[in-house]
Fold these 3 entries.
Entry 1:
Amino acid sequence: MSGNVMHSLVRAVVLDEPINLGPDVIELARLNKVLLHVLRVANHDGELRVSQEDGLRRIINIVAEVEDALGGIEHAFIKLIKPITYVPADVDILVKGSQVPLATLRLSTLGYRVLVHEPYTITLVKNGVNVDLYTHPSAANLVYIRGEELLNSRVEANFNGVRVTSINENYEVALTVLHAIYKEGIVTLNDSATVLKWLNDDSLKLCARLKCIHALGLTLNAMLLSIEGQLRLPYKLPMGYWAVKLLGRVIGNTQYTPSILQGIRRINDPRFMIQLVDRITRISY
């Protein structure tokens, strides 16, 4: 993959510069979760654009329905509102722990079906779209940031014309780098561009307080190195490095260490090996 292609893609996403679309650009944009943004910037019409716009409308409808259903419940949509136009693969919502059963019940009455029930996450599905209810963001059942920390930053926000409860931009920056480095172990252009566009003194101080400055640096440096042609986004952290980083974060903070037992129990989950193979072989998320 030419470094010039990556450079042009970064400029299209960060600066909204027009870009010539070819199969290589489209595939790279898809892997980096910025395809719709690039199609709009290029003013591209056709089946691919229609498919992406339809996908976004489907997510918008789900978000509107869920926001209405969770009225009176302490919640916040996360990893949803960004300075990048994209089609989320699923819908993620933080919910106060004691209110998760009520949130699940309300969504169930609307036709959402429970797929997975884990210590810190319940995954429901409707019309092919997954809705994840989190008490704490976690990876392999290891908590990397407390849910209440994020819920305390709630704001009213706009998602494509739908008023929703979300987290503020500073916390979204911090969560973006935490999710990329500690949860997925993969940095996409969507991640890097979100951080670059929203980073300011307050979000920098927040990352310092949450002890994720190094993760912030990795996220931004990945974009820089990709422009220089030294690596390609999405950038996947080496498996061993990712595991050490995650364990180090959990062990190094007493707020997260109670989740270690849940992480150990995860090894006995029948899905563990399948998920491990997927993590080893995938190139994006």
Entry 2:
Amino acid sequence: MIELFLVVCLVSDPDRCSVERPAFQEPFVNVMACSRNGMFRAAEWAEQHPKYTVRRWKCGPRQI
């Protein structure tokens, strides 16, 4: 399974960043599905977390 990883930074302190794995999503079946939907999921996450900005996102193997 593949999941989405977001690198997010505080708007008030752009050098303070972390990696988030959005909990609201189901794992993707493959990298292509993640690649097609990742930008939309990242935008949803950013909308729900206004104190952060999504610096980048990527798809990778699901971490348990």
Entry 3:
Amino acid sequence: VDLYKSNRIGKIRLYYPDEGVLQALRGSNIEVILGVPNDQLQSLTNAGAATNWVNKYVKAYSQNVKFKYIAVGNEIHPGDSLAGSVLPALENIQKAISAANLQGQMKVSTAIDTTLLGNSYPPKDGVFSSSASSYIRPIVNFLARNGAPLLANVYPYFAYVNNQQSIGLDYALFTKHGNNEVGYQNLFDALLDSLYAALEKVGA
């Protein structure tokens, strides 16, 4: 935390609730994304377990830790055994946050990656794969009802490594000068816009 402060870094993502780190974050004014680890998703489909989780890791620190998002699961894919646990866990964590009267301080979401896209180029034609669409649609509906964004891990490196014939290194590294034929200077922006386009197609 001192390293963050000395470098004026105002945001942190914790992939699991480390109570030592949470304690150190008290009064720091650093915005926190707190993750629910994938191996805890199934247990949090139980409402009581979700309430206990929120009380222990969120409510207990909420007065002086600046929680921004609770990320329920990370990069779960539709074929994963835990895919069916994501939405119930989201709903239960949201209910527990509301019961603790913390819904105005933070949003509950989940994090995906761009491998859920069936097509990403050109970005305006971005669309989720058929299996991902049926998985993500109810999650997107939940997020829309609660005014929460979908969290996305965008990795230009993997997109480049898997398609070096079509993607230039300078385009992936933000060093390309001038726009490409569809108006993008870098791969990150193109991937991000393809996600936006895909989300619009599932009703976001």
